[in-house]
């Protein structure tokens, strides 16, 4: 199935993994909806993709922790196209901290964006996806949500909720022809790792079988596959893209 004419919405697409996914989908011929938290945050990406690939782009903004913002974004998609073919639920936040040391506000924010926000995004997108062609959803969880690590318990719990959401949604939406899968990245070279000093970075590299950090484009390649017809019999799966951090 060619990607030309397919409409994809990528949340959190102004930077990092989300931006790389948007760039890959633009190269594959998708029409795109790009999202940033604040107005104008995704405009630079939109201009780049339009210039490079001639991509038709709609930019939206809003707080993924706010259900009303999410509904407003999907309303804009409905007003323009009346359907959606692909949804990438990528927007998320990260904060590390030992149990007993995380603030109440940090715990609440991690779950509000990563778990509850992903759920509201999925709920709001389902009606438009039912109108789409070969509809598919990819959610971004984390190796911390599937296997855990010290100092990552709260973040990992918020991402484990995404894995559970993926499996349940795949069972529920399969009858409607909607496929739902998730990617669990390992350590990827994005600004989410900016808090690591060189020693911390080398420690993560040493723990990875391939001996390096991942690149956002490597996550994007797997997302593009899962959204494509090449994965037409793949649903309910959590795909680890971690360079052998977990084997």
From TrEMBL:
Keywords associated with the record: Oxidoreductase
What name appears for this protein in its UniProt entry? 3-oxoacyl-ACP reductase
Q: Which family does it belong to?
A: Belongs to the short-chain dehydrogenases/reductases (SDR) family.
User: Which SUPFAM superfamilies does the UniProt record give?
Assistant: NAD(P)-binding Rossmann-fold domains
GO BP: monocarboxylic acid metabolic process
- Gene source species: Rhizocola hellebori
> Which Pfam families does its entry note?
adh_short_C2
One molecular function GO term is: oxidoreductase activity
Outline the extent of the Ketoreductase domain.
Answer: 6-186
